[in-house]
């Protein structure tokens, strides 16, 4: 027999253990669920191995989970005949954190600390939760691979672990938990029984406690809705999502044509990604006639739906479909499209119901709206249905209140063929800026977009129900003239001023014009329609694909006092007038975000002020 080997935990594991043990879980009993769920995962993996491998060690062992307690010794033991672990696997699975995002997770977790007990299972730190209640854990194991050794892994959850060879073990894993002095209640059978009832009743393998069966294996997704209570749904959600919260949406449906499908989908209450917890893993498992095919199937749902949890079962799937062929399978593609459509429809219905309880959908959108936008950005499918789910403020909503494209259209002018939007950091700055007033004056609604991917989303969508989506800072927008405006400049004067401005400003801008869009601002910089927006440019720049900065068209306001005075000044003192014109242009370009370095504008302004006070 080989010598025992002692190794230290990877630094990340030690950090994680520290957090898990000291701050994360208030609900210590959840470690039981985590160990049972690992046993169940391991049995599922063995079931698949049996389909694909010729030889599996001790093939006749039953696929069951057995738990025994010893109240006096303060121990409990969880045994499964799943795939077990080899020496390398013990180190890899119980000594390191393989996930690349776990470092960021740890950092985020430290900042958020206490609040998020529900994330633990989703990040693959489930096993370590045992050290909340234990001061020593032994894992006895033999892999499904006959040639592997019988091994014992043991640790006190502090600094490291020891792996040693042992006498013959059965296939699978036997985990002995030595409870801490003040956690010995977990070794009381009746206690453990109620914990199992609460957290593990949906385990899909026979589970016994001290020799007595404690669960009935049932595939609740195959039952009909009227056999199930809200509590059944809630508990199943918590079981399959490793969650402690209530599901926000529950969608249970089945169909026979064009494909057989039974689906039970949930959305969580909270979105952990928005707190910087790293990207969620796919959370919907794929079954065929109650047999798990893949717990994290690639391509079953589009990536943006990764926040959805639950189960999909289809009788039409071949049982031995491999993970690799899954993504290319025509059937999986069909399931994907059908599930996506059904899910979006469910959200749309919820948004409509939300009319009576608007906070409900608003809250969902605030927490999960990012995924819907991701759905628009990453695929051309379902654009209109997804766009219909978006919410934003507009010039016609009260501050803080949202509207939708559909509602916007009910308020649009009869002949309005576009939906107008502005992008900015907040509502106030867009209200105060030069672009809105022309629309306001004509009673045309403008959507306010503040999320930094919104501009990109609008450009991807291009239209909604046949109406173009147009940024309100674009040059070509054709707004009807308002008749009652009294221009401070005659048509002749305007023409001459435009010519002079064009010459004076030179190639600082693309062109200069007098326009009717402004009210209180003397001049505005407009992006040409065919140029990418500021946000789009920022993205292209980040990808190294941005071309030269597009030049703006300046539109001056002939009704504005400053413009009239400028016209007078250029006849008296052309040199100062030229500097004023340059400054006005810079101000407009800066307001439009087209000047990166404001210090040059400020220097120009200071020197202009100096020369005016001579
Ligand atoms: P997760 O279950 O999310 O992968 P855990 O921390 O719960 O994360 O478990 C870590 C890994 O340890 C598992 O992925 C698995 O490879 C291994 N493992 C844990 N328990 C068992 C078991 N009973 N049998 C076989 N492997 C196990
Ligand atoms: Mg686990």
How would you describe this structure in keywords?
614 residues; binds adenosine-5'-diphosphate; 19 helices; Rossmann fold; Heat Shock Protein 90; binds magnesium ion; Ribosomal Protein S5, domain 2; 9-stranded mixed β-sheet; 5-stranded mixed β-sheet; 4 domains; alpha+beta
Task: Write up this protein.
This protein is of the alpha+beta class and 614 residues long. It folds into 4 domains: 5-213, Heat Shock Protein 90, CATH 3.30.565; 220-380, Ribosomal Protein S5, domain 2, CATH 3.30.230; 392-472, Rossmann fold, CATH 3.40.50; 486-614, Four Helix Bundle (Hemerythrin (Met), subunit A), CATH 1.20.120. Helix content is 37%, strand content 18%. It is built from 19 helices and 22 strands. The strands form 4 sheets. It has a 9-stranded mixed sheet with strand order 1-6-5-4-7-3-2-8-9, covered by helices on one side. A 5-stranded mixed sheet has the order 10-11-14-12-13, sandwiched between helices. A 5-stranded mixed sheet has the order 15-17-16-19-18. A hairpin with a 4-residue loop joins β2 and β3 (75-80). α1 (11-24) runs parallel beside α4, α17 runs antiparallel to α18 and α18 (574-591) packs antiparallel against α19 (598-612). The longest helix has 24 residues, at 330-353. It starts with a strand and ends with a helix. The mean pLDDT is 88. The structure holds adenosine-5'-diphosphate and magnesium ion. Magnesium ion (MG) is lined by residues 34, 37-38, 126-127.
């Amino acid at each position: 027999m080989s010598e025992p080997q002692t190794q230290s935990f990877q630094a990340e594991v030690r950090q994680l253990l520290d957090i898990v043990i000291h701050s994360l879980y208030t609900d210590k009993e959840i470690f039981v669920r985590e160990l049972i769920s690992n046993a169940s995962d391991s049995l599922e993996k063995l079931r698949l191995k049996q389909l694909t491998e010729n030889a599996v060690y001790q093939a006749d062992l039953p696929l069951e989970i057995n738990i025994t307690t010893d109240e006096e010794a303060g121990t409990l033991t969880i045994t499964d005949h799943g795939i077990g672990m080899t020496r390398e696997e013990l180190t890899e699975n119980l000594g390191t954190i393989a996930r690349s995002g776990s470092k960021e997770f740890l950092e985020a977790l430290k900042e958020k600390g206490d609040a998020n007990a529900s994330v633990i299972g989703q990040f693959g730190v489930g096993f370590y939760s045992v050290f909340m209640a234990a001061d020593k854990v032994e894992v006895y194991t033999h892999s499904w691979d006959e040639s592997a050794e019988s091994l014992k892994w043991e640790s006190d959850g502090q600094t490291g672990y020891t792996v040693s060879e042992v006498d013959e073990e059965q296939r699978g894993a036997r985990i002995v938990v030595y409870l801490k002095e003040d956690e010995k209640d977990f070794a009381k059978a009746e206690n453990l029984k109620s914990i199992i009832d609460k957290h593990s009743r949906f385990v899909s393998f026979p589970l016994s406690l001290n020799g007595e069966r404690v669960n009935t294996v049932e595939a609740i997704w195959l039952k009909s809705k009227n056999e199930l209570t809200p509590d059944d749904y809630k508990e199943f959600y918590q079981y399959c999502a490793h969650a402690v919260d209530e599901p926000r949406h529950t969608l249970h449906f089945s169909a026979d044509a064009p494909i057989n499908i039974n689906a039970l989908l949930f959305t969580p209450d909270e979105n952990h990604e928005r707190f910087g917890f790293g990207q969620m893993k796919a959370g919907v498992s794929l079954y065929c006639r109650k047999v798990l095919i893949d717990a994290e199937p690639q391509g079953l749902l589009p990536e943006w739906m990764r926040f959805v949890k639950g189960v999909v079962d289809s009788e039409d799937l071949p049982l031995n479909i491999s993970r690799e062929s899954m993504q290319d399978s025509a059937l999986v593609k069909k399931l994907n499209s059908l599930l996506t459509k059904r899910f979006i429809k469910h959200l749309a219905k919820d948004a409509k119901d939300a009319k009576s309880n608007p906070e409900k959908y608003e809250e969902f959108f605030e927490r999960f709206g990012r995924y819907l936008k991701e759905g628009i950005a990453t695929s051309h499918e379902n654009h209109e249905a997804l766009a219909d789910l978006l919410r934003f403020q507009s010039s016609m909503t009260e501050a803080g209140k949202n509207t939708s494209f559909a509602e916007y259209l009910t308020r649009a002018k009869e002949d309005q063929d576009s939906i107008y939007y502005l992008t900015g950091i907040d509502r106030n700055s867009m209200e105060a800026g030069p672009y809105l007033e022309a629309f306001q004056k004509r009673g045309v609604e403008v959507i306010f977009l503040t999320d930094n991917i919104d501009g990109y989303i609008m450009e991807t969508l291009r239209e909604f129900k046949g109406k173009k989506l147009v940024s309100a800072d674009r040059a070509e927008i054709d707004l009807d003239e308002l008749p009652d405006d009294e221009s401070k400049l005659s048509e002749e004067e305007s023409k001459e001023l435009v010519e002079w401005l064009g010459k004076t400003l030179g190639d600082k801008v693309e062109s200069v014009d007098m326009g009717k869009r402004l009210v209180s601002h003397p001049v505005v910089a407009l992006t040409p329609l065919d140029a990418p927006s500021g946000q789009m440019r920022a993205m292209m720049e980040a990808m190294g694909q941005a071309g030269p900065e597009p030049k703006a068209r300046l539109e001056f306001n002939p009704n504005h006092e400053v413009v009239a005075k400028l016209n007078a000044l250029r006849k008296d003192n052309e040199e100062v007038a030229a500097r004023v014109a340059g400054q006005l242009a810079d101000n407009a370009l800066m307001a439009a975000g087209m000047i990166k370095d404001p210090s040059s504008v400020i220097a120009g302004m200071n020197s202009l002020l100096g020369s005016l006070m001579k």
